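Task: sequence in, structure out. Protein: Adapter protein MecA 1/2.
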Amino acid sequence: MKLERLTNNKIKIFLTFDDLFDRGITIEDIKANSLKVHKLFQEMVEEACEEMNFKMSGSIAVEIFSLQAQGLIIVVSKDEEDSLTEEDEYLDLEVRIGEHPYILYMFADIEAVIQLAYCIKHMDVCITLYEFEGQYYFLIEKVSKESYDTIISLAAEYGYVSTLTIYRLKEYGNCIIPENAHLILTKYFSK
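Result:
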């Protein structure tokens, strides 16, 4: 579980699917919105809030975003206007679940990116190459169900799952190759 404070009233929790499986939760459990999942999320949010010194009282919104083959991002935010006394404390969770139809991997150097490009050059996917804060990112989109597991396995050999949001990457990152990055890299760089 990785934690990041976004603002005074908002924190981000990143959970890999391994973290969820270790806690006995599957994606199907989350989509079913069961009491077991609510209790687990409440425990995780309380644990994260305690670690981040984030006072959890009043109206709390919990947004859950599924990142394909990577895990979940949970954004916890509280209402700024909640000024409650100790006696009036309560917890009101609002849970929303969304999915992101992309895969985002991070690489320490361009050599790893080129090696992965050679492994997937014959696959029909849309890949954009970004650079952000000294790291390289492959944004992989339009992956067929047949190629999905293969691409995830290969990307994991050369890079790491990124918890960076696509919006931040597009806003602050440098787009090096806007489309077909794997084909362009294999055309200009030898193995």
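DSSP finds seven helices and ten strands in the chain.
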